[in-house]
Amino acid sequence: LPPAVQVLPAPQPTPAPVRPPTPAPAPAAPPREVIAVGKPTFDVCRFAGRFADGYVIQLSQGAKVNLSYGLIRGVAVGVVAGVPGRTGKVMVIDLVLAPRQGSLRILRLFSDALGLDTLFPSGTAPAEALKALLVGLLEKSPARPAAQREQLLRGEYPRYDSLAAFEAAVYR
After folding, report:
1. Residues of the chain with pLDDT under 70
2. Which of 7, 40, 59, 134 is an S-S bond match for 104, by CB 3.0 to 4.6 Å?
C-alpha cells in the first residue's frame, strides 16, 4: 500500500505591506489673473454689428472698424463702481488685442453703451445677450479670460471698487 499522503495547505503569499495612500498633490495656487504686462492704451468703443469673422466696432472718435476674432488675445470683465463719467456700477469689458509694435491696445466697452442691440435680435434679455457675447468671444477667439471662464459663463463677474482696482487686478 502506498504510504499515506498528507495534503498540506497551499502556501499563502506574504501580503504586501500596507502603505498609507499617497496623498494627492496640493493644488497649485491659482495664477494671478493678469492679462498683460506694460502700460496699455485704452480705446473706449461700442459694438456696431458683426461679420462672419468678428465684430464691427465703433471707436469713440466715430470710426467703424472690423475686429476679427483672431486679433483678440484677452478678455477682462468686471463690475466696477465709481467709473468717472458713469452712474452707479457698470460692467467693464476689455478686449486685449494682439500687440503691435510693442504697444498693448485694449478696446474698452462699458455696459451702459455696449451696443448689444446691434448684435442680438430685439427682445433678447440683456443678461442673455451678454452671456452669448462672452461665449462667442471665448469660443471663437484665441482670447484667454482674465477671470475664470466658468464664472464668466455663469454670469458671476468679479467686482471692483474702482476702475484703478480693476486695472490693477488685471494689468501690470
Report:
1. 1-38, 146-147, 172
2. 40
